[in-house]
Design goal:
With 274 residues, the protein is an alpha/beta fold. The chain has 8 helices and 9 strands. A hairpin with a 2-residue loop joins β8 and β9. The structure holds zinc ion (ZN).
């Protein structure tokens, strides 16, 4: 099957970056403006800690006002400690609660989507791990729905593909597809975030036009393009946000997938009906 393509090359994905919230959440938009972002990703708390300190009221108000003025996509990336695939009850419970709290915070801030890694099955196997993640997602969505005011826009949860390795889930599209099918949540509630650098590190030859096209075709057939909420590329451990594929030279994808891959991915993704 060939991927659907736009007839004209007019459509270009919005380009953005992960921007720092150091000094105050609302400062993200000033920083984004300085570098011409059309979409942004932020952390709504420290990504390497469990604690979720309250957001200062002034900062929250300023963020919400700035977000309303910003016409593009605003995403957040969840804490790296979260592991919905964990078998340990304490870690699992903590992960579900932490993700739920972040999702709720995103809703309060007017953020469109929250990206989370599927996690590590820690030796239990892929099938067991995916089932745990699916159950975790359902629990999180239930908790947040129960505590969210009626009529407020839901924050979309986006499961990100990973570079894999060890027991980490999400290195191939098939696993993400299994997860989405198992959860059976509407498109507006659950989707995927595709990191081109993670895909490359996982062995997908996206630095070649044919490899990228095959990956996009597989995506189109399986997960479905309507589920793709965000496209990113990891750069020195961070993510650049949506519209896709701000493919800067990446620490994980050295010379072979450097600038040439960047132009290849942006060009091909721009012409692809996401
Ligand atoms: Zn990520």
């Amino acid at each position: 099957m060939t991927a659907t393509r736009w007839d004209s090359a007019a459509a270009r994905p919005a380009l953005g970056a992960h921007v720092s919230v150091a000094g105050g959440l609302e400062l993200a938009f000033e920083r984004a403006a300085r570098i011409g972002c059309e979409a942004i990703q932020v952390f709504v708390k420290s990504p390497s800690r469990w604690a979720l300190p309250p957001v200062d009221e002034g900062s929250r108000g300023a963020f919400v006002r700035a977000r309303r003025r910003f016409p593009g996509f605003v995403g957040a990336h969840a804490a790296y400690l979260i592991n919905l695939a964990a078998g340990d009850r304490t870690l699992r419970r903590r992960s579900v609660e932490a993700l739920g709290e972040e999702l709720r915070r995103c809703g309060e801030l007017g953020i469109d989507a929250l990206v989370v890694h599927p996690g590590s099955h820690l030796g239990a196997g892929v099938a067991v791990g995916l089932e745990r993640v699916a159950q975790g997602i359902e629990e999180v969505v239930e908790i947040v729905e129960a505590s969210t005011a009626r009529g407020s826009a839901p924050v979309r949860l986006l499961i990100e593909n990973t570079a894999g390795g060890g027991n980490h889930l999400g290195a191939d599209l098939e696993q993400l597809e299994t997860l989405l099918a198992r959860c059976a949540l509407p498109v507006a509630r659950l989707g995927v975030c595709l990191d081109t650098c993670h895909a490359f590190a996982a062995g997908v030859p996206i630095h070649r036009a044919r490899g990228l096209q095959q990956w996009l075709d597989e995506l189109s057939r399986g997960i479905g393009l309507e589920r793709v909420g965000l496209r990113t590329s990891t750069t020195r451990g961070r993510h650049s946000a949506r519209g896709a594929t701000v493919m800067r030279t990446s620490a994980q994808a050295p010379s072979a997938a450097g600038p040439s891959a960047a132009s290849c991915v942006i060009r091909d993704c721009a012409g692809f009906r996401w």
